[in-house]
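Please, structure for the following, as tokens.
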Amino acid sequence: MLPQINLRRVYLIARRDFLGYIKTWGFWISFLMPFIFGALAIIASQFDLDMDPVRYETILDDTGVHAQAIIDNENELWRDITDAIQNIPVVGNSKASKEAVQPKTIFVEPPSNDIEALKSYVKGEKLITIGEAQVRLNSATHIYEGPDGIEVDYWSTNISNQYAKGAVSNYFKKQAENDYLASGGLNSDGYADAKANAPVVKAFDPSKVDTGNQSGQAITDIDRIPYGVAAFASLLLWLTIFSGAYMLLTSMLEEKLNKLLEMMLATTRLSEIMLGKLLGIAVLTITAMLPYLLIGLAAAIMAALMGPPEMVAALANAITLKLLIFFPIFLVLGYVFYGALFIAMGAMAESMQDAQTITTPIVLVLTMCVMVVPIGFKSPDSPLIAFASWFPLSAPFAAIIRLPLDPPWWELALSASFLLVMSVGVIWLAGRIFQYGVLSGSGVKGITNWIGRVIFRRKARG
């Protein structure tokens, strides 16, 4: 028999939990944070703020052979990058920047021909003059003849940004490759031409509509958009369930420690308290996730307005009927499943430290479940993802990530039904734990004593 529920009392409990969080400064700070960071990003783009400073490097080449070649290679690299940007087509109404890319590393003439003197520049004890400015030398590379051939020393106090070291290293690796090719009468241009003339492997999807030529069935990056949408939906589902369940835990623990639950139980049924908490935190969680939903919606609208027709069609195909139906279903079932577990854990806990210890296994399981998102994005046909879509703890996330493969309706319905049955069982178990942990005043120690008394037949102390 289903328990009797007074909807007004359920509403009052849900409203209390919702308003209790939404009135705090912390909630509004986290709520407005995406918009604040978005506004700061827009401001930074308008003022053309540069977070990465220009660094000045020098090469002291005792051989007199390699320094200029290294600099020429780097200049050619940046010219290639600029040419590539110039060739990027303008999509829709967007305004692509066609300016030349300015390198962040500039090679300058050595201010001294003595490496010991250069070290003082690198340490910042002396500055070099660039135009009218006095700037610090970021690094000095010393190339010299050693007993066994060319040796290269890189001197810098910046252990994180070592761009010049990589440029010099790549140059000598390329030179070693050219020397090896030359020993067999070959050269790098011929080697590059040989690779360029190799057959290009083209990818096609036979399930795409045949337009009379193979190009209509070619696989492009746009074909991966449905997988990206499914991954985003699955990750959003995980974030919503995790954040909501954890707020349920803290709410339950706070009210238990403050003796508020005993007062509520004087006028409210146990089932009404659980249902009210689930509803109140559910609305709160949706409110907290609203900024991310709005940003995702705005990004989709911008892509539809400014993107090419192929991208718009791919986005439209990604928002399938199955996604619209089963995303809210798995969201509700997953939230109820984990929410009931966290309510039960909160009822057993006697302190915040106690709650953290009890919920650690569930948090670890939830963290492991989010791994289905990258696995499903790369290999949605993986047997592991198929199994995860039936396993209750990971079913909400794995079932959504499999949607681009268009699984049959019966599989999704059966997975949701199985999760529904498990959720009902978890609610029943959570109710018993809630009753035992709150009404009887027992917690983890009470559970431990019960296991020792019933399972191991130990006599109760005292």
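The longest strand covers residues 137-146. The beta strands are 55-61, 105-108, 128-130, 133-135, 137-146, 149-156.
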